[in-house]
Write a structure and sequence with these properties.
Shape: globular
Largest sheet: 7 strands, mixed
Bound molecules: ligand BES, zinc ion
Helix content: 25-40%
CATH architecture of one domain: Orthogonal Bundle
Strand order of the largest sheet: 5-4-8-2-1-11-13
């Protein structure tokens, strides 16, 4: 097994098989504290356990030789000098104890947690907190082997102020009675990045028998309506790729500072409220997070270098689910939008840069969080395989892959081997070795990859071209769907004139839109064009929302001009207290460039 360079842990020597957490949430101090008890499986000689931590205060470490309740003895430990990216290794001297218990508390600045003042919630009365562990932030709130190659089950006992509901990526049930003391279990082995916790004024609203929504009271009913197709999505995915193996599937709608669209925490997807806009036009985020119940949560990449195995497969499955539930037209439009983004990012790069940005899927690439192109290339590759082999052959192949590697952590070679054995060798002559190598070993998107063609987007492109050359407002735009607007804006020039922007606003009221995907594109053009009449609404968008995918492009467009940079700094100063720690670092990077 290759070493995971994003973790100090030594899983070849010892692995956590079960984690028992006893946690307390202190909203006044913004501190989570308690104990993490690791049940260990030793696989060789050795006398140390190395755990990942970041900004944790370690209060004590004890060991027990029996797995049942026994005598705890103090163990010696040391913390390494913190590394900016990786944190500190907690090295514990043990005599191969079967259990090791770490008492600790988090820093108020823990990178994996956000503590929100009541004013930052929908209700405005109660505080809120949530975790975001992926990729390497679990270590900032639990001392753990923070590598996706290690899987363990977990249990937790959590205490919190009695007016708050606590939820984890586990069997929370659907009972929203608040007691201030909660017990949950995750019986399946999961990687550490799927550890998750949230607490706030949360109520439950059912969607169907297996799915539901948790949200603040003012949001719960609206969210359940927006996500009412969730059970159908589950049925569709099961029919294609095998049973859903996690029991319930609930969606927790977080406050708008949640830094992602969604996070696939098992049994409890965390979601941004920015997709709850009343027309279901952004619910492919739910299809995406649900798809992770197969790709990622069930079959996991063993290191972050293999992220495409997770996100690439998930994007592919997401699109299949969108197609089955909402039809081919929407699925094709969404694919075309993603492909366009891939090509736009790739085109201006030299061959050498392309090789770094988008190497062959088998090559270890630098892990860049969500923004890498690997997932998009992976998605395109799988869709291409599907096209060549036909669904009749490809769908059972993919289902077999999920079954074979269920609850395991694997790498790109494991996939390539499975592909060869169960598809390429079974059906010789369908694709050539050179074609497969172009995806797996060579940079960029292969020239023979077909692009999705959307008839509706061709109409949009025509309307945009005519508008740009004649000034005649885009025809039919009053009836465009969200995706058609995204296409219109994606392929529009980065900079437009004040007259052009004014005209679009007069006709279609884009400034102030409630649709975050439209907003991030529109305000990026507004910013690059220094169109000041829209600046108040742009600032209010950046202050209201903290989802990185929505706010970072607008900051990037603002810093393209001197006046914009000045304005961006002012807006950030106001917005910053409401942003998540990782959004803050990402914005600071843009402002300092
Ligand atoms: N698991 C990711 C979010 C993530 C990736 C967090 C890498 C940290 C590191 C999640 O499933 C995701 O991809 N969310 C997308 C939405 C999706 C529809 C593409 C997002 O947040 O925008
Ligand atoms: Zn994802």
């Amino acid at each position: 097994m290759s070493h995971d360079r994003h973790s100090y842990a030594e899983p070849a020597l010892v692995r956590t098989t079960h984690l028992a957490l006893e946690l307390d949430l202190d909203f006044t101090a913004k501190v989570l504290s308690g104990t993490a008890t690791h049940t260990l499986a030793w696989s060789g000689p050795g006398d140390r356990l190395v755990l990942d931590t970041r900004d944790l205060t370690i209060l004590a470490v004890e060991g027990a030789v029996e797995t049942v309740e026994g005598d705890w003895e103090p163990l010696e430990y040391s913390l390494s000098v913190p590394d900016n990216e990786l944190g500190s290794a907690l090295t514990i001297r043990t005599g191969q104890h079967e259990r090791v218990r770490v008492s600790y508390r988090t820093a108020p600045t823990a990178t994996g947690l956000q503590w929100l003042e009541p004013s930052m919630t929908a209700g405005g009365m109660m505080p809120f907190m949530f975790s975001q562990s992926q990729a390497i932030h679990a270590r900032s709130w639990v001392p753990v082997q923070d590598s996706p190659s290690v899987r363990f089950s977990y249990s937790a006992h959590v205490t919190a102020p009695p007016e708050l509901m606590v939820l984890m990526s586990a069997d929370n049930g659907t009972e929203s009675r608040r007691t201030g003391s909660y017990d949950v279990v995750m019986p399946e082995p999961i990687p550490s990045y799927l550890l998750a916790i949230a607490a706030g004024d949360l109520v439950f609203e059912p969607i169907g028998t297996r799915a539901g929504v948790w949200a603040e009271p003012e949001m719960a009913k609206r969210a359940a309506t927006e996500f009412s197709d969730t059970e159908e999505m589950m049925r569709v995915t099961e029919a294609l790729f095998g049973p859903y193996r996690w029991g319930r599937y609930d969606i927790l709608v977080l406050p708008p500072s949640f830094p992602y669209g969604g996070m696939e925490n098992p049994r409890m997807t965390f979601a941004t409220p920015t997709v709850v806009i009343g027309d279901k036009s952004l619910v492919s985020v739910v299809a995406h997070e649900l798809a992770h119940s197969w790709s990622g949560n069930l079959v996991t990449q063993e290191s972050w270098d293999d992220i495409w195995l997770n996100e690439g497969f998930t994007e592919y499955v997401e699109n299949r689910v969108v197609e089955a539930v909402y039809g081919t037209e929407l699925a094709v439009m969404e694919t075309a939008i993603k492909q366009h983004a891939t090509v736009v990012k790739l085109d201006p790069l030299s061959a050498a840069e392309q090789a770094v940005e988008l190497p062959g899927l088998n090559h270890r690439s630098q892990y860049h969080g969500t923004t890498g192109l690997g997932p998009l290339k992976g998605r395109w590759f799988l869709a291409w395989l599907e096209g060549r082999f036909t669904r009749e052959v490809f769908d059972p192949f993919l289902r077999g892959y999920f079954d074979r590697f269920a609850f395991q952590s694997i790498n790109s070679e494991d996939f390539a081997g499975h592909l060869r054995e169960h598809l390429l060798d079974q059906r010789p002559g369908v694709v050539t070795a050179a074609e497969v190598a172009a995806w797996l070993d060579e940079p960029g998107i292969p020239a023979f990859a077909e692009r999705a063609v959307s008839a509706r987007f061709e109409v949009v492109d025509g309307a945009r071209d005519r508008w740009l050359s004649t000034g005649q407002v885009p025809e039919g735009a009053k009836h465009w769907t969200t995706q058609e607007w995204l296409r219109f804006l994606d392929a529009a020039p980065d900079v437009l004139t004040a007259e052009q922007l004014q005209q679009l606003d007069r006709e279609y009221a884009l400034t102030g839109t409630a649709n975050g995907e439209i907003a991030r594109r529109w305000y990026s053009i507004v910013a690059a064009s220094t169109y000041s009449p829209a600046y108040d609404e742009l600032a209010s968008f950046l202050t209201r929302v903290g989802r990185m995918k929505l706010v970072l492009p607008v900051y990037k467009a603002l810093v393209r001009t001197e006046s914009g940079r000045e304005f961006a700094s002012q807006v950030f100063a106001t917005a910053r207290p409401g942003y998540h720690p990782i959004t803050i670092s990402a914005v600071l990077k843009i402002l300092r460039r």
